[in-house]
Amino acid sequence: MTETIVVKIGSSSLTSEEGGLNRERIAFFAHELAALHEAGHQVLLVTSGAVAAGFRKIGYASRPKIIHEKQAAAAVGQALLMQAYQEAFGSYGADGGVGVAQILLTRADFSNRKRIQNAQMTIEELLKQGIVPIINENDTVATEELKFSENDTLSALVGNLVKAKQLVIITDMDGLYTEDPRKNPAAKRIDRVGQISDDILSFAGGAGSSVGTGGMRSKIDAARIAMRGGVPTFIGRVVEPGDLQLAVSGQGRGTYFDTSLHNLPMKKQWLGFHSMPQGRIIVDDGAERALLEGHKSLLPAGIRRIEGEFHAGDVVEVCNLSGQTLGRGVVNYDAWQAQAAAGLSSEEVRRRVEVVRMEVIHRDEWVTLKN
Ligand SMILES: Nc1ncnc2c1ncn2[C@@H]1O[C@H](COP(=O)(O)OP(=O)(O)O)[C@@H](O)[C@H]1O
Ligand SMILES: N[C@@H](CCC(=O)OP(=O)(O)O)C(=O)O
């Protein structure tokens, strides 16, 4: 099976602090991506750099902060960015290089089923035709409240959308350190992360340069989104020819974020990532422990509340009392039955509610999503 790799390159890797594109770096990255493509991977690029590429051209002295100035700079810079990629991908190898396509998305597109399905189908077709889709945020139409602002989150959502084998977030630092190495040179690099704990979050700080925006924190947040979608993530540096291949093969200069969800059987992958939950079941602390630590089935006694109109056989999301998603499962009860049985002991359920099985969700029909 062809494996799909999503690569995200941040502004700090493509542009200089004074603004403007670093064409040498763009050519380098394009050739790294083209080599990956030639090695048989389907490759998608999520690239930043439009604002950084455009602001000097438009006459601003430094990266603008006001939204419509940023949008204007992006409108100028995006064309320059694509032109640079087109040339660079086109010059790869002997026979006309690798074709590229521009896709601009907004956060709102991801919450509209029709629009995101369209994007997905377009991307699939492009990949089938051997084209590398180059994706950025559609800065002109993204409203302030709904802007990604950095592209890390966008790349994670794209990774989940195409069910990528891996998300590679390229930045100017070779991974996550225990503290920003620019502030503390004695900070230590973390090679592998299995779970994004509060400690991991506390290590990550803001942007390191005047062109970068999200810093390490937004990359860790993105890794978390990707991991929840079953997509393992690499955050690190790609500076020498062959580095991208090394990153994909597990020997890159950076931090790997593993997700055991990736190795789930197909049925559970569908359950966890591609199913459409029809409702929510809110459970108490005891049920949370039983599901997550005891790997047990969900019984009526642990249910606090039901939301939505689901039927036996539907997929539902299960949340704890603070609203965090614990996982998803196929429910054996209709919503009204689950409501009637909520909080009751199994004995009481048998007497009062007509149900086929005692487990509201059987552990074989469950996938944990909380990490
Ligand atoms: N714990 C950390 N480990 C590594 N880098 C960190 C950490 N905390 C903050 N950073 C900063 O995050 C920066 C990368 O993010 P950013 O500047 O937004 O780059 P990009 O443009 O690639 O998205 C690094 O240059 C570094 O200074
Ligand atoms: N869409 C914007 C992305 C902004 C940005 O700088 O993102 P990043 O480098 O990922 O922190 C652009 O192309 O300039």
UniProtKB/TrEMBL annotation:
<feature type="domain" description="PUA">
    <location>
        <begin position="279"/>
        <end position="358"/>
    </location>
</feature>
<keyword id="KW-0808">Transferase</keyword>
<dbReference type="GO" id="GO:0055129">
    <property type="term" value="P:L-proline biosynthetic process"/>
</dbReference>
<comment type="function">
    <text>Catalyzes the transfer of a phosphate group to glutamate to form L-glutamate 5-phosphate.</text>
</comment>
<dbReference type="Pfam" id="PF00696">
    <property type="entry name" value="AA_kinase"/>
</dbReference>
<dbReference type="Pfam" id="PF01472">
    <property type="entry name" value="PUA"/>
</dbReference>
<dbReference type="InterPro" id="IPR015947">
    <property type="entry name" value="PUA-like_sf"/>
</dbReference>
<keyword id="KW-0547">Nucleotide-binding</keyword>
<keyword id="KW-0641">Proline biosynthesis</keyword>
<dbReference type="InterPro" id="IPR001048">
    <property type="entry name" value="Asp/Glu/Uridylate_kinase"/>
</dbReference>
<keyword id="KW-0028">Amino-acid biosynthesis</keyword>
<dbReference type="GO" id="GO:0005829">
    <property type="term" value="C:cytosol"/>
</dbReference>
<feature type="binding site">
    <location>
        <position position="8"/>
    </location>
    <ligand>
        <name>ATP</name>
    </ligand>
</feature>
<dbReference type="GO" id="GO:0005524">
    <property type="term" value="F:ATP binding"/>
</dbReference>
<feature type="binding site">
    <location>
        <position position="151"/>
    </location>
    <ligand>
        <name>substrate</name>
    </ligand>
</feature>
<keyword id="KW-0418">Kinase</keyword>
<feature type="binding site">
    <location>
        <begin position="171"/>
        <end position="172"/>
    </location>
    <ligand>
        <name>ATP</name>
    </ligand>
</feature>
<dbReference type="InterPro" id="IPR036393">
    <property type="entry name" value="AceGlu_kinase-like_sf"/>
</dbReference>
<feature type="binding site">
    <location>
        <begin position="213"/>
        <end position="219"/>
    </location>
    <ligand>
        <name>ATP</name>
    </ligand>
</feature>
<protein>
    <recommendedName>
        <fullName>Glutamate 5-kinase</fullName>
        <ecNumber>2.7.2.11</ecNumber>
    </recommendedName>
</protein>
<comment type="pathway">
    <text>Amino-acid biosynthesis; L-proline biosynthesis; L-glutamate 5-semialdehyde from L-glutamate: step 1/2.</text>
</comment>
<dbReference type="GO" id="GO:0004349">
    <property type="term" value="F:glutamate 5-kinase activity"/>
</dbReference>
<dbReference type="InterPro" id="IPR001057">
    <property type="entry name" value="Glu/AcGlu_kinase"/>
</dbReference>
<feature type="binding site">
    <location>
        <position position="48"/>
    </location>
    <ligand>
        <name>substrate</name>
    </ligand>
</feature>
<keyword id="KW-0067">ATP-binding</keyword>
<dbReference type="InterPro" id="IPR005715">
    <property type="entry name" value="Glu_5kinase/COase_Synthase"/>
</dbReference>
<dbReference type="InterPro" id="IPR019797">
    <property type="entry name" value="Glutamate_5-kinase_CS"/>
</dbReference>
<keyword id="KW-0963">Cytoplasm</keyword>
<dbReference type="InterPro" id="IPR036974">
    <property type="entry name" value="PUA_sf"/>
</dbReference>
<dbReference type="InterPro" id="IPR041739">
    <property type="entry name" value="G5K_ProB"/>
</dbReference>
<comment type="similarity">
    <text>Belongs to the glutamate 5-kinase family.</text>
</comment>
<dbReference type="InterPro" id="IPR002478">
    <property type="entry name" value="PUA"/>
</dbReference>
<feature type="binding site">
    <location>
        <position position="139"/>
    </location>
    <ligand>
        <name>substrate</name>
    </ligand>
</feature>
<dbReference type="GO" id="GO:0003723">
    <property type="term" value="F:RNA binding"/>
</dbReference>
<dbReference type="InterPro" id="IPR011529">
    <property type="entry name" value="Glu_5kinase"/>
</dbReference>
